[in-house]
């Protein structure tokens, strides 16, 4: 599965964004958010879906003790708030901008239903997209519960490889050019940046990975 609006060769943004349609264009606007701005809170009414045009958004919730739990960090081209079209009336998570400039395309759930009803093929792809995302989230939560930090990191790298990687024809290594910072990765695998840096340096010494600020390389033996 690719992480962007492109899904099975279909550009969902071109199809779904309301400003592409004359009947919705006049009343449609993009919303701009700064770092730490919330797009929605837990228990807010689930009336819209959202497409990220620029920036990054984290999805999470708070435990009864007030601890923040991050479920996902989404980037340019991704869809969130999709449970609104499944009949869920209230949010059970928050969505918050984590970039200084995040541009969001909001889509009312009624508008989305209209667009999906007019295109059965796209409707199927959206539901499949939602199913795959839920499957990936379930897998990540299982890793958090039952695996050590090093294993969680390696599995996260393999997921990145599926979404953002390509194979080098000369040696079979996989190069990954992804949008996540080290802070993002540490948050997603449930560890500190210090621990993440330590494990990454250990994996580098073991010749499992190579990395710099611009890219990550997975050696053939784990990709």
Can you characterise this structure?
The protein is α+β, with helices and mostly antiparallel strands and 223 residues long. The protein has two domains: 12-142, Jelly Rolls, CATH 2.60.120.10; 147-218, Winged helix-like DNA-binding domain superfamily/Winged helix DNA-binding domain (Arc Repressor Mutant, subunit A). It has helices spanning 12-16, 22-25, 109-117, 120-146, 149-164, 182-189, 193-205; strands at 6-7, 10-11, 31-33, 38-40, 48-54, 57-62, 68-74, 79-80, 94-97, 102-108, 165-167, 174-176, 209-211, 216-218. Strand 6 and strand 7 form a beta hairpin. Helix 6 packs across helix 7 (193-205). It starts with 5 loop residues before the first strand and ends in a 5-residue tail after the last strand. Residues 1-11 have low confidence and may be disordered.
């Amino acid at each position: 599965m690719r992480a962007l609006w492109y899904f099975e060769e279909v550009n969902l943004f071109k199809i779904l964004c309301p400003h592409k349609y004359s009947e919705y264009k006049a009343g449609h606007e993009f919303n701009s958010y700064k770092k730490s701005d919330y797009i929605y809170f837990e228990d807010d009414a689930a009336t819209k879906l959202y497409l990220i045009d620029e920036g990054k958004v984290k999805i999470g919730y708070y435990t009864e003790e007030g601890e923040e739990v991050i479920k996902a960090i989404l980037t340019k081209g991704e869809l969130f708030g999709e449970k609104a079209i499944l009949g869920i009336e209230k949010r059970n998570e928050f969505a918050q901008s984590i970039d200084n400039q995040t541009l969001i395309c909001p889509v009312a759930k009624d508008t989305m239903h209209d667009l999906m009803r007019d295109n059965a093929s796209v409707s199927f792809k959206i539901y499949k997209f939602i199913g795959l995302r839920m499957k990936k989230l379930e897998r990540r939560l299982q890793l958090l519960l039952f695996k050590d930090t090093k294993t969680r990191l390696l599995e996260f790298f393999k997921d990145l490889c599926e979404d953002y990687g390509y194979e080098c024809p000369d040696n079979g290594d996989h190069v990954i050019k992804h949008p996540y910072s080290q802070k993002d990765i540490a948050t997603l695998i449930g560890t500190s940046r210090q621990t993440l840096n330590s494990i990454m340096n250990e994996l580098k010494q073991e010749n499992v990975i190579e990395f710099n600020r611009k890219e990550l390389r997975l050696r053939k033996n784990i990709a």
